[in-house]
Structures
1.
Amino acid sequence: MNLSAKNKWILVIFSAVAGFVNGFLGGGGGVIVVALLLSAIKLNQKNAQATALLVILPLTLVSAAVYIFKGLVDWTPTLWVTLGVVTGGIVGALLLSKLKSNVIKIIFAIVLIAGGIKMFF
């Protein structure tokens, strides 16, 4: 895919925002990256989500390292949650490859709305 200079800068600037959100809140950067990829360079939903997962990985590792070195991680729940997240991640990635982009878009929207409502209350 060829990107214009303008699109490259849009991606860099908004990705920096995603990095900040992920590092500051402990997550959520991927949602921003998905929205960015959908709107700025018109990727389809499936490709945007797969790409966001890949680019958020190094960011998450760096953020996690900062939290670890500052002693902010409680390892007991971390290990149990990691087991569930890895299992769910494998199932989710396999399911992503089998569903159509429109279905994924609806599921993504429902999850975001439900999460927003939960956080609000």
2.
Amino acid sequence: MFSSLRVILSTAFIGIALVSVQSFAAEEQGPPGLNEKVSEALQQKMKPQLDAKNWDAALAVIDSVLATVDANSYDTAFLSDIKAKIFLQKNDYAKAIAPMETTLRLADKHPNYFDKKAVLDTIYFLAQIYYQEGTSSKVSSVQQQYFNKSSAYIKRWLQISPKKNQEASLFYASILYNQAVANPDKVDLTLVRASRKEVEEGLLSALKPKEGFYMLLLASMQQEADVAGSAEVLEQMVKMKPENKTYWLQLMATYLNMGNATEKDETKNRENIARAINTIERAQVLGHLKTPKDNYNLVTMYYNAGQFGKATDLLYGGLKSGEIESDIKNWQLLAYSFQQVGQDTKAISILQEASKQFKTGQLDFQIGQIYSSMDNKTLEAYNSYGVALKKGGLDKPHSAYMFLAYTAFELEKFDDALESILKAEQTPEGAKDTQLLRLKSAIQEALKEREAAKAALEVKKI
């Protein structure tokens, strides 16, 4: 915001250093001219300090002279103007405000003191400085005071400026927006809309609008919860700045938010997820959003869109290549994805591959569950549950014991079934599981029948 100001200041101080103060004061448009004693003091005492860029010493000279002149004189106006510029040169913007406002007050009272351009520059600088001070403050009430001052000055500048330029328009829109959100707990939507209106006018005023217009328009739309409008703006932003990774992330997130908002409408939901997928894939072509996390997000988008085949291929390829983090949950998701497309055998193969990397019985337990859902795979399920319990590390050991007991019962391995039930009873969940008692009763009844059958067979042999 202060780049143009710095150029102007540097030019101004080069001028001050090279010419005499008296000639600097005597402009063609006819300012009164400096008091002779003031001019002499500045020429002999201040100019050497300015030439040496000894700003504090120059300020001391100005203050000593100011104390001797009429507060409403041209001398005061001229000295205040120089004093303000020195503070700006020192980057001490807050201290520049008072002398700059003194200069402006006297210029308003005496139109011949400064030309129109000098007055316009002073007004614009004041708007900039108050804005800078407002954005630097963390106190909402203080921010509001500074933004109000800045707004008043920029409005005045716009009213008398011969030509409204893009920079000023963007600056004014920024002030309005910051006024609107100074109190985050009570955003002023009227000011937000005013900022948006100024931005929209600025966008129409140039063939190549400044990027800041789009950023402000996006912020305004977000404040008004205009998600669809935000997406349109972001599409323009990624087109204008395709190298900006942040814009791609924001666009993707916006489409996902639109998907969440239309969750009950399956068609629109999938359309918005498809847009998010398209966004990340466009970004990846440009080299953005290619981290393992980004690649995993793409998989989940395809999954949420119901494209299980594509999600599965991306996840499997990413896990094998390292483009997606190889952790147990991702392998489990991959197996689940194969199940969703009816490839149970492939899901089992994936979990078996993962079990070589992760020494936990949880994967074998899942293998057992898949086998349990398949025809004529009870023995394989039984063996998988046994391996799972042997390895340990299970989320719910009680469930593994129960599944092992069920499969053992189906295979008429009643002793193993009873042993599993007894171990299940020892878990915290076992005491609350009513199914456990029913299964235990059934197993015990089967054991009794088996023993009775054995006894009857022995009797026949006799």
3.
Amino acid sequence: MSTESKRPSFIAAILTILFLIAALTFTIVRLEAAPHIPLILAAVVAAAVAFKAGFNWNEIEEGLLHGINVSMKACVILLVIGMIIGSWMLGGIVPSMIYYGLLVLNPAIFLVAICVIACITSLATGSSWTTAGTIGVAAIGIGQGLGVPLPMVAGAVISGAYFGDKLSPLSDTTNLAAAVTGTELFDHVKHMIYTVMPSLIISLILYGVLGARFGAGSANTENIDLIVTTLGDQYFISPILLLPAILVIFMVAFKIPAIPGLLGGVFLGALFAVIFQGADLGAVVNALHYGYEGTTGVEMVDKLLTRGGLDSMLWSISLIFAAMAFGGIMEKTRMLEVIVEKILTVAKNTGSLVLSAVLTCIALNMLAADQYLSIIIPGRMYGPAFKDKGLHSKNLSRITEDAGTMTSALIPWNTCGAFMFATLGVHPFAYLPYAFLNLINPIISVIYGYTGITMEKITDQVKGKGKAKSAGA
């Protein structure tokens, strides 16, 4: 039996997903345990369903391993970010960022300021991960010193980080969404402005309201003074120590691949630790491997600084492996395809089609656990339906980013959610209510679908070109 003729039933595919949801809910909510085991059990159930549909073990294993292989770059970046945090703590880079941030920022403007800074950084680099691993880590420390709840800080960082991840021409997801849907890159970028800019404006207003509430109570100046004094006593603090963060941002912005660029940040952190903080080689190696441990004697500061290292990322990497194994089996054995096809049969008008595409992107972020699949699969599956309704492909490319890119960091077992948890130290379910840009963007996209706002049609000229191209192919 060929792979093309093997298809699990819609009922079987849905039951597999229901098992995953039930297992995750019971484990996380009732047992208060990690999601790794239910994801592995769900992968076992998916494999059993695939067996019944006629797939053999080699085909199932191929899907499982392919799913994990897709995530390998993300896992390598996670490890490198762990080393960056460890070396930047030891080298005084993050402590310097926290030190100067506490001197300049106050609770009333902090959330707005950090969101804007993250927007600029992510727009320049095209990377939400680089933004979180540099600006985000410092923001968590500054927010803790100012007394701003960390879920709010993480939410502001995530919002700003994903502004550029979605909109920057340097972003891999931006290029992927355009390529998958057959849209010109800059047409895609310009079309996204209609949804992302209103989302950002609303988000900044909400962060301003939250910040004003904290500003009314003022920061605990005793804590701020204690942190600033302790950091000044324990580290050599200087603006020159901000250089590695700036250089990493510029390296990524100037299209140096992410892994070499981030490794450059690790090298600079280790070098600065030796030159400016007097660390020996053994301390550097330990910080890279096990993370940095604060030993200032001030509990609040030690808790702030004890972070990073390869080991700190292994929990997240094992979670990614489990989630991607399940997602790989679901994709290879066509269960995701069967579900999407069923959804398309009930999407009768433009609004319901857009809503279906948005929900599919979100569901794939949950089920396939990777933002790339949440862009690729809907981009492929919904393309003909959008064309049949006379809708330009850039509407679909925008939707895959509005819902696929934006919601990936809100799901703990997604590669992006796992990364943000490991990097910022705040659980995705905790920062989810405050990641305003990520929550608002899909809603605006659906509103546009039902109202027709900015839903550009395929012009007769474009249709004619498409036919001419097909005839000449």
4.
Amino acid sequence: MAKTPKALGRGDAAPAFKLLDQNENEVTLSDFAGRKLMVFFYPKALTPG
């Protein structure tokens, strides 16, 4: 069974992640180690909701 992700609040540390960028290149949170990073999610992007 899939684990329900924890809701994050402003200022919370982001969990480790691995995603594809707009050019299909893999990007991980650790790629930005030592730098400020803002992660913004569009929860309903590309959905009818």
